[in-house]
Amino acid sequence: MPQQKHLAELHHDHREWKNILFFYEEDIVTMKKRLEEVASKNTDREMHGLVERFQNKLIIQSEQIDILRHDINACEDVLVKNVEHNPVASDKRKIDDHTELRERVQTFELLFNKLRKDLNAFVAKWM
């Protein structure tokens, strides 16, 4: 049987996940600027190929943020409809946890943090 959580707990998780995604979105902007700085200060062809690969990875991460945000909003809509349909004791009601979405957010964070580490090592090497 799937684990269940109170509606308020799930709502809190959704807000937290959206804040995390906003943080990573801002981080992508910073990382893009760092890549542009490295590219403008170096003429090495190999380095420019690596910059392009990192830029592509950042584009993919931005797309993943959009997908996750969309899916979080869809889950939040389920919570809202649940409360609207039956507002009585909604603060005590439990529904199935969004385990798959939780795992996707965690996986995204792990992959993003590895990308950040790799990008920072690359920038340090070429600056």
Note the run of SSEs as H and E.
EHHEH
**What is the topology, as strand order, of the major beta sheet?**
1-2
Q: Percent of residues in beta strands? A: under 5%
Q: What oligomeric arrangement do these chains adopt?
A: single chain
- Please bin the fraction of helical residues: over 70%
Distance between the termini: 53 Å
* Radius of gyration, CA atoms, in whole angstroms: 19 Å
Number of helices: 3
Largest sheet: 2 strands, antiparallel
Q: Give me the count of strands.
A: 2
Instruction: Tell me, rounded to a whole number, the average pLDDT.
Output: 94
Anisotropy-based shape: elongated
Structural class: mainly alpha
Extract low-pLDDT stretches: none
Q: How many domains in all?
A: 1
SSE diagram, text form:
Layout: E1 4-6, H1 7-41, H2 45-85, E2 94-96, H3 99-126
Antiparallel strand pairs: 1-2
Short description:
This protein is mainly alpha-helical.
Name the features.
single chain; about 130 residues; mainly alpha; two-stranded antiparallel ribbon; 3 helices; 2 strands; about 5% strand
Overall description:
The protein has a two-stranded antiparallel sheet. The chain has helices spanning 7-41, 45-85, 99-126, and strands spanning 4-6, 94-96. The model has no long low-confidence stretch (mean pLDDT 94). It has 127 residues and is mainly alpha-helical. The longest helix has 41 residues, at 45-85. The protein has one domain (4-126). The protein has 3 helices and 2 strands.
